[in-house]
Amino acid sequence: MTRRAWLFAIAGLALLLVAVVADIAQGTGGLSLRTVLDAVAHDRDSLEGALVRDVRLPRAVAGIVAGAALGAAAVLLIAITRNPLAEPATLGLTAGGTLAVTLTSAYASLAPGVSTIGVAFVGVVFGALLIGAVASVAGAAPVRIVLAGMAISLALSAVSAAVQLLRETETSGLFLWGAGSLLQSGWGQVEAGVLIGGVVLAGCFGLARSLDVAALGESTARALGLRSGVTRLLSVVAATLLTAVAVGVAGPIAFVGVLSAAIARAARPRGHGAQLVIAVPWGAGIVVGADVAGRLLFGLDEETPAGVICALIGAPVLIAAAKRLRDGGGPVVDAAASAARWRPRGVALALVVAFAAAFASLCLGELSAGPGEIVRSIFGTGQGLGDLVLELRAPRLCVALLAGACLAASGVVLQAAVRNAFAGPELVGVTGGASVAAFIVLLAIPAAPRGVLPFAAFAGGVAAMMLVLFLAGSGRGSPQRLALVGLAVSAACLAVTTLLVLNAEPAASVAVTWLAGSTYAQSWSELGLLAIPALVLLPLAALGVRRLDVLMLDDELAAALGLRVRPARAALLTVGAALAAAAVAVTGAIAFVGLLAPHAARLIAGGNHRRLLPVAMIIGAALLATADALGRILFAPTEIPSGLVVAMIGAPYLSWMMWRGRLAAA
Questions:
Q1: In 472-560, where does DSSP find H-type helix?
Q2: Ramachandran region of residue 588, left (φ > 0), alpha (ψ -120 to 50) or beta?
Q3: Between these two residues, 511 and 280, which has the higher pLDDT value?
Q4: How far is the CA of 328 from the CAs of 43, 141, 416, 425, in angstroms?
Q5: In angstroms, how far is CA 116 from the centroid of its own chain?
Q6: Do 576 and 436 belong together in one domain?
Q7: What are the counts of helices (DSSP H) followed by strands (DSSP E) for the chain?
């Protein structure tokens, strides 16, 4: 190691030491530092000693284990993918582990310690298989893989949220853990994490020399006798085990790996072993320091998860890294689907499905009415049950249809303008900004009229997109850079939203329902709030279809065709963001409609946006109407928010598209 590398490693150890001492000393008990040190050293009988040994010390050690594991996992993942943004959170691995733990807690008995880490490992492997499928069909461009990983995370996280809602009693203890809390109930999980993590970390140092050779290139490594495939396999296994340890001990924590690995690379070390020496203490110090900072900022009486603070710290790092990445160039939407010919039968089928979903939504539910009764009520000749059902369900159905169409149109515009197949509203800051603004209203003005919330959410979504445009506007302002900046802003918004939820009493239930996305209890007034911006924005999107076709080309070619690329892209991004913000403002944070509807539409309408836009709107409307009906019917009388139903529909669809190689994003 060089002198510079040693200085970085020593600085990381110093940060870790200070953070651990501060973390153990922090608490509501008012213990002095000397009392804490005495309790750690030899006091085994007093109440203070038990408090330190059984509550505070396990918490600090959990932070050390989780941070060290995430730092080491990031070094391995960056080495085998050659992607500076690769880490367990950005590749969807932590979301897979979270889903596995949530499912086990909901439907089985979750054992402590090793079993928790073992369950998380199964989920992490599942996430690794999904991202591996994307990499196999789409290549390994950094932006492509990170955006795909975050789309996978979004899908798996939505399924986790749906499971928690269905099994609320069984999963009631997972909320803080799911936000990345270091709070421990004893030494069981921590001891298992120390044992497994220590063994795997030692193996990582053993792999370091092989990774150094593999970095020279495939042919050189083979000439030197290195079996690169075995090295990559062992590195993946080690990274998944380390991720499982971190998730099992402290829940999902994002961006620690990116940050600690970036610090390690800044030290310019010689080899991956030196990178591990630097990244491991820095990762541990960041997590424990985030735990200390959270309680300093928000008080000792409130449990502020370290994962939230890490996300707020890591988002600017991701933005800085995005600005340094080179534009991969080229269109990014599935070429085969974009070149598909116009299929009138497919369009007719989409219309039939949309109509059937709308009619089923009116007929089915706790109160069921026959088709004849509904038809008579629509034409004003009905009576009794038909009129009642129509009065209750027609407004929410109309809101679902229009919101689904707006979200799908937003996805079409954003994906073409950003030239990335994963650039839905939820991945470019719109949904996150709307959520933050809505939660601020719920907290600051709990007695505000119902109409205030949609206006605040609309403003928040547009403001977040404007922030993304501003932050990504330096240099050439490439589409891929913009998508990554949007991802970072979305992550920061999610962290802020989590903080607001933790302090949302007595509005917590309303806030959580809004975050899940719901068409529940929508009225004609909400339809009017959505119809006004839709009548303005949808025609603007339709007028821009020719520009969207041109923007799908390379920027230089688009400019040669006479298009002012940057102003056109900014204008269309604003329209797309406003469409999504209008829908989210009324229905809450519904994801996946804007991501999946355009892909499904391309299969039957091709890449011509004049045809693609209306077909995607039909599919988006059908998707959200179907989700509204299924959410009411499947687990009646419990109603599942439409946003979670869409995510449960969208996750398998997204996985199927990945395995089929349809989303060849670049």
A1: 479-502, 508-516, 524-543, 545-551, 555-560
A2: left
A3: 280
A4: 60, 7, 15, 22
A5: 22
A6: yes
A7: 29, 0
Question: Is 68:281 a contact under the CB 8 Å cutoff?
Answer: yes
Locate 485 and state its tokens: 């900046």
**C-alpha 623 chain-centroid distance:** 21
d(CA 98, CA 175): 11
- Amino acid in the structure at residue 498: T
HSE-up (13 A, CA, CB side) for residue 349? 9
Question: Quick one: tokens of 472?
Answer: 């990504």
Taking the C-alpha atoms of residue 336 and residue 339, their distance in angstroms, rounded to an integer, is 5
492: nearest Cα among 318, 321, 324 = 318
pTM of structure = 0.79
Render pLDDT for 139-155 as a digit per residue (tens, 0 to 9).
556 666 777 777 788 77
Check whether residue 101 and residue 210 sit in a common domain.
yes
Domain boundary among 307, 324, 341: 324
**Greatest Cα pair distance in the chain:** 87
Does any domain span residue 157? yes
- The encoded tokens of residue 471 equal 């932050």
> What tokens were used for 67?
């941070």
* CATH code: domain of residue 490: 1.10.3470.10
Q: Cα-flanking dihedrals φ and ψ of residue 180, to 5°?
A: 90, 50
CB-based contacts of 352: which residues, under 8 Å, 6+ apart? none
Q: What is the DSSP string of 275-297?
A: HHHHHHHHHHHHHHHHHHHHHHH
CB-CB contact of 81 with 145 (8 Å):
yes
Q: Hey, what are 666's tokens?
A: 């670049």
Cα→Cα distances 6→2, 202, 283, Å: 6, 19, 16
**pLDDT tens for residues 234-266?**
888 999 999 999 998 988 998 898 899 989 988
User: For the purposes of burial, counting CB atoms within 10 Å of the CB of 331, is it exposed (0-12), middle (13-18) or buried (19 or more)?
Assistant: buried
- Residue 291 in any domain: the answer is yes
Tell me, what's the pLDDT at 73?
94
Token pair 């001990």 in the structure block, residue: 249
Residue with structure tokens 């993918």? 81
Domain boundary, last residue among 263, 298, 324 = 324
Q: Is 390 contained in some domain? A: no
Domain that holds residue 628: 395-660
pLDDT digits (tens, 9 = 90+) for 144-186: 677 777 778 877 887 787 787 777 777 777 777 888 888 887 7
Mean confidence (pLDDT) of the chain: 79
